[in-house]
Amino acid sequence: MSTPSTRVLRDVPKAITLSAFLLTLSLCSLRVTAQTPRPLASFHQALAHSTTRPVRVGVYGASHTASDEFTHVLRSSLQRRFGDGGIGWFLPSSPFLFYGRHEVEISGTGWDGMRVRGRERRRDNYGLAGIALDTQDGATSRVQLPPHSEQALSLSYLQQPGGGDLVVTWAEERVVIDTDGPRETKYITLTTSFEATLLTLVATGKVRVFGVDMTRAEGVSVDAFGVPGARAGDQRPWRVRSLEQSLRSRPFDLVILAYGTNESARRERPSERGALREVVR
Prior knowledge:
Elements: H1 14-26, H2 41-48, E1 54-61, H3 63-66, H4 70-82, E2 88-90, E3 105-109, E4 112-115, E5 131-135, E6 139-144, E7 151-159, E8 165-170, E9 173-178, E10 184-194, E11 198-204, E12 207-215, E13 219-226, H5 240-249, E14 254-258, H6 269-280
Parallel strand pairs: 1-13, 1-14
Antiparallel strand pairs: 2-12, 3-6, 4-5, 5-12, 6-11, 7-10, 7-12, 8-9, 8-11
């Protein structure tokens, strides 16, 4: 008899099944032997305890991930079966065309979106997702949230020399964050009992925001880390120490690499396989 965790894929719509198939094709160059441990055993174990602990899934990919299309379906399916772990990670303003999150309405002015690909493909601090909001002289964000039960509210930003102030406001609360200091990725919890439906951010001076995180102490959350046009190799310019800090601040029970679509347009297959192997390591 199947357990609830092993039956989860039976209820996932065909869109997820197709994405999983494409992901399998993109990972086909990775060697799996009879001695390879069950790769999803720890994830199934986490799902079995989702009523007493948070279960976190991170999906790295391209435009289909950035727009939160198949990740939204995956999130809804898992949360229905194993509990709602919260909205999860998102940017409080759109960094580029096609960015979206189904659970929130975001707007903002004055931000420049940065992403670890194309012209932005230089070694830098890209936070957890490879995308960020950057401003040199001030910006604002407004996030409309659906009614929900209590969640913790956290924020990831770049501490940097000459950094400005970031004011975060919700309900009757107001927190001022001074981002000046030695260059380092910061992840702070602002409150463990966020229940408002409106969140605003006001930046003055030079500020970089990597994302907002809203989660509960139990249930499943699914984070969509997508960059339009991205390939797996685009992860390589991340500053390793910055990425490691971000992953430690929000450890995942399952990481999905949903790449392959943009790699298919190139003929340098050996180099793409090498990039995927490097990212997995």
